[in-house]
Design a protein that fits this description.
single chain; alpha+beta; 6-stranded antiparallel β-sheet; globular; binds 2-acetamido-2-deoxy-1-O-phosphono-alpha-D-glucopyranose; binds magnesium ion
C-alpha cells in the first residue's frame, strides 16, 4: 500500500487544474492503490483519479500505459466525431507536466491519473436485467469503436493470456509434475479437461487460419468495469483498461457470460445451484450485438456461444492447474477453494454443452 503522503507528493507532477481541496482513498479495487482528488477551479469543482499501479502484478507498466494511451486517444477521436461526451464516455488520461502518460517516483512506483467520471456508478453485482444489458451494450460499443484500431500494435502485457491451447499445455505440465500429490484426488476433473483437448483448439485454430480477426480486447468484462449513468441508467464508460490487449472479441463476450449469466457464485459448493441462465445469456447477447453495431464478422457471431464455453472451460482449467500447483496464482480463502471454483466452471461448461443449440438460436435472433 502507498500512503496518502506518497500520493500527495506526486500530485504536483500532473497537469491538474486548480487548487487541491481533498485527496481520499477511493473505491474497492484489489490491485492498484486509488485516490480521488478534488480541485477547486475558476469554473467550479474538478475531480480526478490518481492511482499507484501494482507493478508486481502488472510487470510491464510502460507497455501497459502505452496500450491505455493508444486506446483512449482513439476512443476520444471516435466519440468526438459522433458528438458524444468525450470526458464521460471514455477514460481520459491526465498527463504529467512533461507530457508523459505516467510518473515514476524516486522509489520507482508508477503513478497515473484520469479525469473522474462524474454522475456515474459502478456496481459489483448484477441486480437486474437492465444493468447487465447496459454493460453488454457498453462492452459491445467498446469493441465496435475499436474495430478498426490496429490491434497488432498493442503490447501483449500478459503473454498468451487467452491462448487456451497454451493453457492446456500448462495444465498438462502441472499434472505431470503433480508437486502437491493432489492429482489422485481430482481424477474426474482431470478427465473432464483431457476429454476436451480438441475443443481447446477451436478458437486458437480459427484465429491462426485467419477466420477470426485479431481485435482490441478488454479481458476483464465484468459488470463492475462499466460506469452506469446515475440519471439515465445507461452504461456510459468502460473502465479498468489494465488488461487491454490484442485478442478475440468472442472471448470478451464469453468472459461476461461465464461470470454474469451463471446462476451461482464462482465458488459455490452446491453444484446443483450452478447453471447458465439462458435468459441472462439472451439479455447480454442482445446488448453486445447492438453495441458492436455491425462490427462483428459472421464467424465471430457464430462463435459467440463457443466463446462463452471456452472462457468458462479455460478458467476452470486455470483453477485446476493452480490447485495442482499449490494455489499460488489465485488467492484462496479456504481449503480447496480453487477446486470448488474449478468445479463450478466445469458444471457450467457441461450445462453450456447441452444448451449449445439454444444459444445459437438466441444469437441468430439478434444478428
Ligand atoms: C482474475 O481478479 P479478477 O477477478 O479481476 C483473472 C481473470 C479470471 C478471474 C477469475 C489477470 O480476475 O482472468 O477470469 O480472476 N485475471 C488475471 O475469477 O489473471
Ligand atoms: Mg480486474
Amino acid at each position: 500500500m502507498s500512503t496518502k503522503a506518497e500520493a500527495l507528493a506526486v500530485i504536483p507532477e500532473f497537469q491538474f487544474e486548480g487548487k487541491l481541496q481533498e485527496c481520499i482513498p477511493f473505491g474497492n479495487g484489489h490491485i492498484n492503490d486509488t485516490y480521488r482528488l478534488t480541485f477547486e477551479t475558476e469554473r467550479g469543482i474538478r475531480r480526478y483519479i490518481l492511482q499507484r499501479m501494482n507493478t508486481s502484478i502488472f510487470t510491464k507498466p510502460k507497455e501497459l500505459m502505452e496500450n491505455i494511451e493508444g486506446v483512449t486517444n482513439w476512443l476520444k477521436k471516435k466519440i468526438a466525431a459522433t458528438g458524444g461526451d468525450v470526458e464521460r464516455e471514455t477514460l481520459n488520461l491526465v498527463l504529467t507536466k512533461d507530457g508523459k502518460n505516467s510518473h515514476v517516483d524516486a522509489p520507482g512506483n508508477y503513478w497515473r491519473a484520469f479525469l473522474y467520471v462524474e454522475g456515474a456508478t459502478s456496481y459489483d453485482q448484477v441486480k437486474n436485467d437492465r444493468d447487465f444489458y447496459e454493460s453488454a451494450v457498453a462492452f459491445g460499443r467498446f469493441q465496435g469503436l475499436l474495430s478498426d484500431y490496429p490491434a497488432k500494435t498493442l503490447h501483449e502485457t500478459i503473454e498468451k493470456f487467452h491462448d487456451t491451447v497454451d493453457r492446456f499445455a500448462k495444465f498438462r505440465a502441472a499434472l505431470d509434475a503433480d508437486v502437491c500429490g493432489r492429482a489422485a484426488l481430482v481424477q474426474p476433473e482431470i478427465r473432464f479437461v483431457l476429454e476436451r483437448e480438441a475443443f481447446a483448439h477451436t478458437l486458437v485454430d480459427l484465429q491462426a487460419a485467419g477466420k477470426l480477426p485479431l481485435r482490441v480486447t478488454h479481458n476483464d468484462t465484468k459488470l463492475n468495469n462499466i460506469m452506469i449513468d446515475d440519471v439515465s441508467g445507461k452504461g456510459i464508460c468502460v473502465i479498468d483498461l489494465d488488461t487491454v490487449m490484442p485478442g478475440l472479441s468472442v472471448n470478451d463476450f464469453g468472459d461476461s457470460i461465464r461470470f454474469g449469466a451463471s446462476t451461482a457464485a464462482e465458488d459455490e459448493q452446491d453444484l446443483s445451484k450452478v447453471s447458465c441462465d439462458l435468459h441472462l445469456f439472451e439479455v447480454y447477447t442482445k446488448g453486445f450485438i447492438e453495441g458492436c453495431a455491425g462490427a462483428l464478422t459472421e464467424t465471430e457471431l457464430a462463435m459467440l456461444p463457443v466463446g462463452a464455453r471456452m472462457m468458462t472451460f479455460e478458467c476452470g482449467m486455470r483453477f485446476l492447474t493452480d490447485y495442482l500447483e499449490g494455489d499460488h496464482y489465485f488467492k484462496i480463502h479456504r481449503e480447496n477453494h480453487n477446486l470448488d471454483r474449478c468445479r463450478t466452471q466445469f458444471r457450467l461448461v457441461a450445462d453450456m454443452e447441452e444448451k449449445e443449440k439454444e444459444m445459437q438460436e438466441i444469437v441468430a435472433k439478434y444478428r
